[in-house]
Amino acid sequence: MPVVPQYHELFNPLLEAFRNLGGSARNDELLKEVISIMDLSDEVTSTPHKDGGISEVAYRLAWARTYLKKRGLIDNSSKGVWALTHEGTKTSHVDPSEVIAYVRRNTSSSKAGNMSPISENETQEVEDETSWKVDAMKILLSLSPSAFERLVVRVLRESGFDDVTVTGKSGDGGIDGKGLIRVNGILSFHAVVQCKRYSPGRLVTPSEIRDFRGAMQGRTDKGIFITTSDFTKAAIEEATRDGAPPLDLINGERFVDILKELRLGVSTREIVVVDRGWFEGL
Prior knowledge:
Pfam families: Mrr_cat, Mrr_N
CATH architecture of the largest domain: Orthogonal Bundle
CATH topology of the largest domain: Arc Repressor Mutant, subunit A
Strand content: 15-25%
InterPro entries: Mrr-like_N_dom (IPR025745), Restrct_endonuc-II-like (IPR011335), Restrct_endonuc_IV_Mrr (IPR007560), tRNA_endonuc-like_dom_sf (IPR011856), Type_IV_Methyl-Rstrct_Enzyme (IPR052906)
Number of strands: 10
Shape: globular
CATH class of the largest domain: Mainly Alpha
GO molecular function, one term: DNA binding
Protein name: Restriction system protein
Strand order of the largest sheet: 4-5-6-7-8
Helix content: 40-55%
Organism: Alicyclobacillus vulcanalis
Oligomer: single chain
């Protein structure tokens, strides 16, 4: 059984990730950077959370963000971007026990002297951030292939693509869709897309990246690989390998964030709400 780092063991790698990323980042960027800093194995990063939908590492990183936020070292915007605070920029290292003690002292329902995240207030904050992603991912994995294709097409169109089509051909080399991206109404370039609806325990491999790149050759300017799970470290390296056309990778964490940003089946009220009926109507 792979050993996933405890949430408090992620405090300092998370602060380092912020520094490496220029002081601010999205959740998926932070997750990727923390995995790199800690050199976590694919076996560890593919361990699903008990409720499914997201990885256990992503869930515990949400706890780490919550504690560092309550400690005043990081903050997040309504756009889903996290950033170091003024105090955070001056903090290179924290004592996990001190951070936990500080949060517990300032949370009336907390129990002191315990490294486990058990406060009701803390639990609600993390659940608000992660439960909607778990719900969204479960719905994505339950969609019919045609409904998922329509969703991807909608995402591409809402993101600025024109002439979006679904290939749906068994002999199309793994290309699931294609479209035209226009920049300021003047420049344009073609892009092809591949989608893999995998559960969190199934990561995209470098061979799949190579196969997709091979299918792209001579047919397009850009490739986008979307998965509902994540990519192995070797797959990420392959996607950005020197001398080969670079690919844009969108993992499950980023994909559901995009749905939220575009308000496609995911809306923000007092908390983030996943609209199951919207997906069923695809």
